[in-house]
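User: I've been going back and forth on whether these two constructs are worth ordering. Before I decide, could you fold them both?

Assistant: Sure. I'll take them in the order you sent them. The first construct and its structure tokens:
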Amino acid sequence: MSETLTKKTLERLTRQIHAGKLDARDGLLSERGLCKQLGVSRVTIRRALTGLLERNLLCAIPNKGYVLGPAALTQRNIQSGKSEARNTVLALQGPDRAFEGANSYERRVFLGMEEEVRKLGLSLQKGMMSLDALRKTLAGDVGRSLLGVALSWRSPQAAELLLAEGISAVQVDVSHPGLPMDAIFQDDEAGMERAVAHLWDLGHRRIGLISGGEPSNTPWRRRGAFRAALLRRAVVEVPAEGLSSRVDSEGGREAIAALYRGGDPPTALIAANQRMLSGVLDELDARGLALGVNVSMVVWCGRYGFGDFLAGTRWEGLDFDRMVSLPEEMGRVAARILSVRAKDPAHPPIRVAMPMQFVACGSSCPPGPRE
């Protein structure tokens, strides 16, 4: 009896989705709401929802609810005649990010995306807006012509809104793993392994990590990759970490002060955020530590190095061993993902980890007598 009821519930929900009577625009679909609407038990709804997930008619937002899946969205676009009219890509930054500086990481990602979008015969718009402004944008002319969104937004709220609205999106250098959405991001795991391997091969066994910002941002997430690289080398002690809530020069000072507060100081450092670099160098200098002499360092950075963050300081022009990201290529691949998604909406989520390059410039050396 329950199997028959589950089947009937599944087919009823399928018909509602195909008819455009069921979506998440007015709020995520929930088990409780569907139980009340259809007059069936939670067990029956859960079984029916499992069937809808398997058919790609729904996608789950962990711990929150459900939105229409790619199969449902494809049919809806065909029925509305919108599938051929969408040719705009929106490069969207959250209010906590900006297209700053001619050589900034964000600007370089956008330039690569702009180049690829032009090759694909699409148009590109960029913006930095609040969640309310995004809702208004989706309801206007841009929303009606939107092929997809390249989303650089640390909070998951914008991603959830786009899923609920049925807008294709790729998360750029931001990844919310629980969301059924395409994403492209730096391969922090491989990059950190390469940085640790470089220092380890020189003979360093006390390696410290410098990181700043909120726990959800990218440099902090590199902490997990740092720990993993040490575990591969049988290092089970708590790693040396200099952490700060700030991602500026003062945060760099705080991070070094924390690392050298007591115990055996590290002989090598990995700086996970170049924005903190001038403060890191100031604090090391105040302690009489010189790069490449008393302490080694590898820095995470974009292709164009540290100019914007060391300009006007006494460290201007200094170079470092570094892990280099390729922001332009990230932008180009993000545009390609949106193009592929438009052609094959039912494809499982695409997650691309972009490789990094290691560049040696002499800021690391074998450990001194303290080792």
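The second construct, handled the same way:
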Amino acid sequence: MKLRQLRRLPSYSARLLTLMSSIGLIACGSGTADLQAYVEDVKNRPGPPLDPLPVMQPFVVFEYSPEGLRDPFSVPKENAESESSGVRPDPDRRKELLESFPLDGLGMVGTLGEGEALVALVIDPDQVVHRVKVGNYLGQNEGRITAINENRIDLVELVPDGAGGWLERQASVSLEDEQ
């Protein structure tokens, strides 16, 4: 008899649970009418006015007529002539250590010797002092030392001219004042 009562218990619980769920859903269904009315009201409202279309500017037609003009992808004739006779860096020359620093990062700290045997002392950004003489190179623009004085080093740099050639530019490194 106890076994029979246990079998009835789950079906009774299941029926009770179904009944309670149905009552809950019926109670919730009455509140959806207000929600549906609100959604319909929002859908029926007019939208905001659209911005006017921007005024289109008229397109200006440019006609390119290349007659009498040089080819923009070739070297100009006046520069081609100057390239063959102008100065240029020596690609086979071995770079010196002080050419890896910009010229404004180098400073002169003194000289050694006298007259033609004058040697300059140059300090690099790593605070290492180097000896240089006439003919050595400084800076990143192929700067060749042309003269060493008691208070400065004169040099000639090679800089690109923007048209495939090279220009010589005078530069100097002055003795740093001790403070």
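Notes on the second construct follow. The chain has a mean pLDDT of 82. Residues 33 and 68 are 82 Å apart (CA to CA).
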